[in-house]
Amino acid sequence: MSESNFTTKFLKLFGIDNQGHNRRDPLNVWVPLISVGLALIFGMIVIAASGRNPFQAYGLLFGDSGLIPGGPAWRREFAELLIKSAMYIATGLSVALAFKGGLFNIGAEGQFWVGAIVATFFGYWAPVAHTFGAMYAALGSFGWIAQLLHGAICVIMGMLAGGAWAAVAGYLYVKRGVNIVIGTIMLNWIAWFLITSWLVIGPMTPPSQTFTSGTFYVADTAKLWRIMMPTRLNTSILLVLLAAYATWFLLYKTTVGYEIRAIGYTANIGMEAPRAQGINISRRILQLMFFSGALAALGGTFFILGMQYQFPNTAIMGYGWTGIAIALIGQSEPLGVVLAGLFIGALRTGATSMQVANIPKTFSDIIEGMAVGFIAMQVAVRYYLVKIIQHRHARRDPPADQEAAA
Amino acid sequence: MKALEVRSISKMFPGNLANDNISFSVEKGEIFAIVGENGAGKSTLMNIIYGIYTPSGGDLLVNENEVKIRSVEDAIKLRMGMVHQEFMLIPRFTVTQNIVIGDEPHKGIFFDYGRAVREVRELSERVSLTVDATALAGDLPVGVQQRIEILKVLRRGAEILIFDEPTAVLTPEETVELFVTMRKLQAEGKTILFISHKLKEVMEIADRIAVLRRGKLQGIVNKKDTNEEELARMMVGRNVVLEIPKVDVEVGAVAFACHDLHVRNKRGYEAVKGMSLEVHGGEIVGIAGVQGNGQDELVNAMIGFSHPVSGSMELNGKNMRMVTTAQLRKEGMSYITEDRGRRGLVMPYTVRENSVMGQHLGRPFSKGIRMDYDKVGEFAEGKVKEYDIRPGDVYDTAGSLSGGNQQKLILARELSLPHNFLIASQPTRGLDVGATEFVYRKLLEEKKAGKAILLISLELSEILGLSDRILVMFEGRIVGETTPDKTTEEALGLLMLGVGIDKKVQS
Which CDD domains does the record cross-reference, listed alphabetically (chain B) (predicted)? Predict the structure, then answer.
């Protein structure tokens, strides 16, 4: 058995062959895990290099992240972790779904806020809010039906609006050839400033209040149910898990998903193969952008209906950007996105506690950034991983020709 | 003096001997042409000389000194220059910027644009290649862009110039101008290697001509001792002909028809200039022609990738000029492509997923929005057995299959689509004998089943063996129609290369 033959055989054992990596390749799971591990190790080095104790820092970071049960504040931390993660998973799914179709939807940020503002509107807008308020009062012990309906309307309208917002970029791409990255990033800023510089301090502010107080508060019927009293944990985590399942189902079980993946796989060579089979690429791309935008907007509705109950004047951008990192760490697979979302949510939750020990919370951002960096270097990670595996195997089981020579 | 000598150069690609022991020498100040069909090994040879490929064996001599050319930089140092078929210009740069890029005149760390412009003007005057040194490259016609490329290599001091199919992108007028330029360069003492498959041009410009066929040098002839017919015969030669059984089928109704079809290529030039043809059920119509004579554009129009600018196109009597691929597919068009990697299959998709693309909507492969992958799997398993697609695991990606098995997968898919008109565009390109024979057998089965088949091929043996009628395509037009029993490879070869067409048109 020649050396090259040995290598080929071995690579094949781990799901890699000359034709690029296989979807059933176990390395697809190991690469993100190892990347995150490397990020954590390098994070320790960075903390140590700044003269602080990395073990103390990690102890605080993960001890208060909500991931590890126990401690007096655990229930609250766990709730915070899930509330944060729900929003990150939503934007992560949004970016991941677009990636699957070969599109870089960098506009999850804008779509998130469009979802948030529309959910706010339907949450407080008198015709809707009064109807459900009256319904709630009339139904008595069946008042939950009114809550369910009002919440659903807010979430659905938010998702439709976010989807439509993303579809604008899709339309510009399909009909006018505007690069999807450019289109979505421009729409981010349009959305952000329309909302924060006009709607929130203008038409949607209660007249008696000052412009610094944000919009009207949504009616009680629009708020997401709390599911773990006394914490503010709400149904958003359940909804986002449902969305993750729906995304997986769309991609791997439906005809649309089948076509979207075919488009994504051929995006860099002109999508000719699916086109030649009669697949309507423009339509699928428009639909894909709509779905993607709706997912990001779902996160925006959580922000309002689960946490803030109004669109505050102090909202800070970042949920969509984080979604990009999560989609990358999660390898664009719905399950991976859920896990990556929980990881980032944990880092963000625990970061605050680190500050108590005089360790800047930006260290958690550094870890996050490095995780993405190592994912981006996955070709190298893969390469060394295979080398290590080969090395170990070669020691345990020397190739046949060496034995023959000996 | 010999400017360049090639001694028994060979180049082995996996499964393909692209250059087989080629030797020739080029005198200084000579225009030396290398002709051959596509895939004959011309470009490989030039890439070896220019340092892009390393040869598997053999030696190169420049100015009678043995040299090792390991990179393009080495080649440039040896005063060689290549004018590529696809220009490598930056459209937003001026002519001057394009010419000096990589070797800019500078003052300290600053680019001395003024001096660059002067240098370019001097150079263009000296070799009398007129260009506007300050115009934007992107605004200039193709012929002038090529002149920029030539100036670029001259400025680097090139003494040996390689022109890789330079006329492929030029209009006839621009070609005439190019030849004037080449003569001037020759008069300056430059040595020119001219790669082409257009015999008329070769006969006009070259001093000596080397003919390549399937990687082998067929011979070197002096221009004055030869003619187009002889060159064509050397180029086409006799291929190993597979035994193709004759199948007689009663010809049915017209399935596909087009009349006076005009189609533009991607650059907006008319590549199909008024084609009319009919394909009946139970008939194989072969389109013979040298690559680049409008076949790709014709196919693109027939599969709905581009819309013809004028003319009519009908499938089963329905107007199909401005429709989408989906509509053509619905009407019964099936398509076997030569470009398996881009157009035929989604390479990262599994055999299973690829096998149903195009018929995945509706029963039996989906119910509503839901794909029924169990049914897809069953179907794929069946096809893998029927078509003997190896290694036979439906979960293998298409990209991991060999070319022959990829083509079988395409056939399996296309022939299982409901269809009555099959476009087979170079269906055996890059396939070994076994897979080729399989494709032939399937095409003949299709014919027996009464399907209308349009076969577009560069392989004459294939055209002659399979077709009931043969159309010869040259420069976007049909220049001849014949049947296999009334013609020979030689006669077809001449027609394909445009030999004698002018005479016919005039008479």
Answer: ABC_Carb_Monos_I (cd03216), ABC_Carb_Monos_II (cd03215)
The pLDDT of residue A17 is 38
Cβ atoms of A301 and A117 closer than 8 Å: no
Picking from A258, A260, A291 by the largest number of B CB atoms within 10 A of its own CB, the best residue to mutate is: A258
As a whole number of Å, the end-to-end CA separation of chain B is 46
- Residues of chain B with pLDDT below 70 are 14-16, 38-39, 237-243, 433, 500-507
Query: B79 CB contacts (<8 Å, ≥6 apart)?
Result: B62, B157, B158, B159, B160
A42 with A145, same domain: the answer is: no
pLDDT at position A9 over 70: no
Question: How much is the pLDDT for B207?
Answer: 94
Task: Give the tokens for residue B477.
Answer: 């037009």
Residues A91 and A199 in one domain: yes
Q: Tell me whether domains B2-236 and B254-332+418-506 share a fold.
A: yes
- Chain B touched by A391 (CB under 8 Å): no
Spell out the domain ranges in chain B.
2-236, 254-332+418-506, 355-417
Is the CB of A258 less than 8 angstroms away from the CB of B303?
no
Residue B14 burial (CB count, 10 A): 4
A261 touches chain B (CB under 8 A): yes
Inside any domain, residue A202: yes
Q: Give the C-alpha separation, B364 to A254, whole Å.
A: 14
The interface predicted TM-score (ipTM) is 0.83
CATH architecture of the region B254-332+418-506:
3-Layer(aba) Sandwich (3.40)
- On whether residue A80 sits in a domain, the answer given is no
Contact at CB, B357 and A262, closer than 8 angstroms: yes
- A392 and A284 share one domain: no
More confident residue, B462 or A297: A297
A28 touches chain B (CB under 8 A): no
Which of A12, A256, A277, A291 to mutate: most B Cβ within 10 Å? A277
**Does B339 contact A at CB distance below 8 Å?**
yes
Quote the CA–CA distance of B206 and B185 in Å, as a whole number.
13
Residue A197 belongs to a domain with what CATH number? Answer: 1.10.3470
Please tell me the predicted confidence (pLDDT) of residue A229. 85
pLDDT at A52 over 70: yes
Q: Which of B323, B325, B349, B345 is nearest to B336 (CA)?
A: B345
Token pair recorded at residue A354 = 């680190």
Q: Which domain holds residue A373?
A: 1-15+37-52+361-406
Residue A69 within any structural domain of the chain: no
User: Min CA distance, B344 vs chain A (Å)?
Assistant: 5
What CA–CA distance (Å, rounded) separates B48 from B57? 11
Q: Is B344 on the interface with A (CB under 8 A)?
A: yes
Q: Tally the domains of chain A.
A: 2
| Lowest mean pLDDT, pick from A126-130, A356-360, A370-374, B20-24 | A356-360
Give the confidence band of A351 by pLDDT, cuts at 50, 70, 90. confident
Contacts of A269 in chain B (CB under 8 A): 341-342
Query: Is A63 a domain residue?
Result: no
Q: Which CATH number fits domain B2-236: 3.10.50.40, 3.30.160.160, 3.40.630.10, 3.40.50.300?
A: 3.40.50.300
